[in-house]
Amino acid sequence: MTCEDETMRIIFYNIKDNVFLLKTYDNIVNHINIKTMKDGAILRKALSDKSIEILNYVPIKKKQEAIKEQFKSAITYLGNSIDKNRIRTIYDISEIKQDDIYIAWYYFPSHMKILKDLKCKKVVMGQHFILLPFNGDFSSMGVNWFVNQIDVSKNEFINYFFNLKNVNIMTLPYTFENRFKCKRDFRERKEKALSIGTISTVNGKGYDIYIEYMNDICLQPMRKIIYEKGSNKYIDVYNNFLFTMGYNNEINIHSKFSDYIKGKISDWKEAGQTKYYTFDMVEKYNEYMMCVCGEEKVELPGIGFVECMACGCAYIGLDHEMYTSLGLIPGIHYITYDGTYDDLINVIQYYQNNVDELEKIAIQGRKYILKNFNRDVVMNKFFEKLKCLGEE
Fold it and tell me: What backbone torsions phi and psi does residue 13 show, to the nearest 5 degrees?
């Protein structure tokens, strides 16, 4: 029997609170609009494959009925076409067996704390690895795979703070939803660049290490620079801060947001990405020939590069391994600049005067994205690797 033919059990930790899989129960009841469900396709794929058994581990034996109701509320986010009854909740860690696959998100301390106690196969999702309040010695914890949207094997930040000896690096590229389509002819679009992407800053325990290392509280400095420069004849700015009151006040906002979650503040309309989602992103992409989505300072791209290219934009990004490791070729699939605002404007100006060349890059880039970053292709490869886990 090949590994592809074997059935498997996948363990998730308290699904209702995982913001990367769905809109969480807390966000539903508090009407918080934070769209971070970038790994939701993993849960959907698992639910669509009847050879996979899905277990939801919740380490709280009390208030089980309340937990079940909250789970039921959160899981409705997945829609009616998915058999959500296939998820079985367990409360005892001893039910996790040696051949099971436990998928943890590094961002959540609760996911990570039980790793050392598990004897099963372990996969750690490395999104938002800049939060560092706990052990990064994945090798001693027996982690099989460390997963990120790009190949992070050479990432300086990762290699400085994490021990990945004997841990395999897996790439799970960003994917685009079906709604991201090319709807408008390239020549009918504005000969400008669209700047998109949320601007995030960090504060508090766990992030202090990042701040000391980077000497900055902003995660995407180029987005902030573009935002402060404002729209002009080369670029239209649609960036917004995660908390819409702005950069100067954001350090103080974290504590206020926490008070809102705890019920100490009754109305907190500034929380979340509300302003950022007041426009239709797909329609907006289709208005422009070019798009830029400033990368994170830890050398990670934003999901916007995949989405805008799927919509037919020529993407502008850094000439960096974060893209080339995914097979993107500068000058063929996307446009590069040196990471400064002045060069960004120079590059945009050049392609405004060379639209034929620009259109060719947009077409080639879109073809590559449609072939390599669609959800079926990416998820099939990911689950094939999971089924062969331990045999690599």
Answer: -100, 115
